[in-house]
Amino acid sequence: MKTTRRILLAAALAAPSLSSLGADNGQAEWRDSIVRFDVTRNDHNFRVPWDKRAQTVSKLGAVIDGNEVLTTAQGLANHTLVRLQKGGRGRWFDGEVKWVDYQANLAVVGVGDETFWSGLVPVQFAGAGQLRDNLQVVRWRAGNIERRAAEFSRFTVADANFNQAPRIELKASSEIEGAGRGELMVSGGKVVGLVASKSGSTCSVIPAPFITAALSLRADGDYNGLGYFDFIWQPASNPATTEYFKLDGPARGVLVIKPSTRPGAKSPLKRHDIILEVDGFPIDIQGDYLDPDYGHVIMEYLACRNKWAGDTVKFKVWRDGETEEIDFPLPKADFTANLVTDRPDDTEPTYLIAGGLVFVPLSAEYLSSWGNDWQRTAPFRLVFYNRQKPETAQRSLVVLSLVLPDFYNIGYQERNAQNLVLDKANGQRIDTLESLANALNSPGDGFHVFEFKKGSALKKIILDADALEEANQRIAKRYRIPRMRKLE
After folding, report:
1. Structural element, H or E, at residue 280
2. pLDDT (0 to 100) of residue 179
3. Which fold has domain 232-329?
């Protein structure tokens, strides 16, 4: 019996552990290819915009050729210090962000101390045909390499919460906890992608082919950023749609209902064009196409499939009873001119305080202050404006974030005086903080009158113009506000 136990014990010790299953190509532990990040950044409060606090973000990255480390862009905005650690423990090295694209969610970091690179090995990236099988999530944890199995689910074209360029994403399920900080998803000794986020058991992964394409263009100095389709379309699911426009044959394509969402842009598309093909790929009535690498995905990805801002995409459309081919130049993914502004991630909040009334731009960052589930938790009317497009008379919006209580603004400190979209100030239409600042120079009959959008809980706020400056000084001192306004 003892002999049998010894044999079983020896067999168990000789068997591979779960953490090493599937490893090969000399990268079994990935110890020499994964580094940890410690990022210190300014965390801004966009609802209390003069308030900022130091925040520490932990991330991971992969060593790549050229003595650089690849990671996700998340957590790098407004950074003040970036440190890297190899081997899962020990000394930290100062790093420098050499390249970042928040739209692509990719960043490259360098380290000037040459001793950091000693013993590190660049990763190899998987090709498009190697993204589905034998997946694992790999990372440093408590000074050891942790590996967790993952199961491929699907490819999808997804953007972020707001108006961002669509990117292909790999979805995979895994029981690994707390992922979404740039962990490596690997297969067969090659990197399948970086884990950008995790919801429930589903990991969203930036796939390797997208990463290598961006890195290659950056190395050549030809990286122009992501492009996108700036038109709005609707499915042609009902056969009557294509019949109405006299398109013969089976129902196919999608109907253009707005040629461009960019203010003043001229588009080669026309309203009621039916898009039949994009770069030779037939578009079905749902707006999908069959990608040779990723299967059926939405046509928006064709703006990023081997294409970048400034490139030309070939469209075949049905227009006025006949087929036409048009060239569509891809605009750069820049959404600063949207009704709900989406500014570069490395910019600080802007605001204007007048008599304790705190005004800020209605922005993507402001809505994000309600958390990842902002579409459900943020005030309904603010979420509504995120779906609207700019108007000629009002290109963007200003919102009353909160009221700092003072006897000057007595009666307006209730909760119904928060998160109100400003329409006019002193009779002038307001679309920016600058226009609000100008309006405050022209009070009417000794009063400042603020009017809010139709449907707001509060219609107007009226304040004494002559007492405004004194109130500003008192409020700045009471609430320790260093500046009463920070404009663009």
Report:
1. none
2. 94
3. Pdz3 Domain (2.30.42)
